[in-house]
Amino acid sequence: MHRSSPLPVLAALALAALAALLFALAVGSVDVSLLKVWNALTGGAQDTAGTVVRELRLPRAVAAFAVGGLLAVAGALMQVLLRNPLADPYVLGLSGGAACGALVAMLLGAAALVTPFAFVGAGISTLLVFGLSRGRGAWTPTRILLTGIVVAAGWSALIMLMLSLAPEAQLRGMLFWLIGDLSGAEHGPLALVALVAVLVAAFALARDATLLSRGDVTAATVGVPVRTVTFALHALAAGATAIAVTVAGSVGFVGLVVPHAVRLVVGNDQRVLLPASALAGGALLVLADTLARTLVAPAQLPVGVLTALAGVPLFLWLLRRSAP
Description:
Elements: H1 6-26, H2 34-41, H3 48-81, H4 94-107, H5 114-134, H6 141-165, H7 168-179, H8 188-204, H9 206-212, H10 216-221, H11 226-248, H12 254-266, H13 270-294, H14 303-322
Helix pairs in contact: 1-3, 1-13, 2-3, 3-8, 3-11, 3-12, 3-13, 4-5, 4-6, 4-7, 4-11, 5-6, 5-11, 8-11, 8-13, 12-13, 12-14, 13-14
């Protein structure tokens, strides 16, 4: 299959991401012209519009872009490691572990501890999956996948238990977080820094990851330290997912659909696929979050609802398009 040249594709995705960010800053209950957006970003506007852009929309847009990019990169890495184009960032039960941690903090009435509790939950899930899947043998994609499914089922049971015991006053907030919600997203700049760090680390391993996608034997034949690279890429994917989940909850389909779609355009070279997925995932989630807060304004929808509604038909179309 013919693949597009990577540079025009990356440039187009960068422009799409910039357009999505500008759209997010300009659209809302108070429409702001692009000129006023520019003045607000450069510090020239001190009026209501400037305050809305700088203090309300910009932090949320940055968080959305970072979360979308992290999920897309994590999805691309998981699809390589598990050699399965249907793998997504939540396949190791990370989302369930983070959700349990966050819900515990909510039940305790410690809103300030939601993020650290969620991160700890994701870390526990990662340790469980890798510890249990190792057993007496080596890690294999199949063992990791099956262990992740079982661990995720266990987390789901705990989540249902906590929801059934939660006071009604807390239930709505807990459900929004589980679906995926950026209305109260914090730590967007830190998530953006994490996205850059994950991309830099993953890019350093991109050549080995491309060879690894062709099988352990093939990779080992050309000198790839399979075990080390596999563990490093798993750690990167787990860390990226944990950060994304702690910032925005469980936003579905971004990490599944975006890498799959981008791969059809640029191929499987991870040196191109990873940055392209980050740009596409970030742009997609910024656009979805903008729609989530404007479609039924002044009410807001969880962004995970929109990504799921758009992701299901899009993924079915991609499967049909890529079928032999």
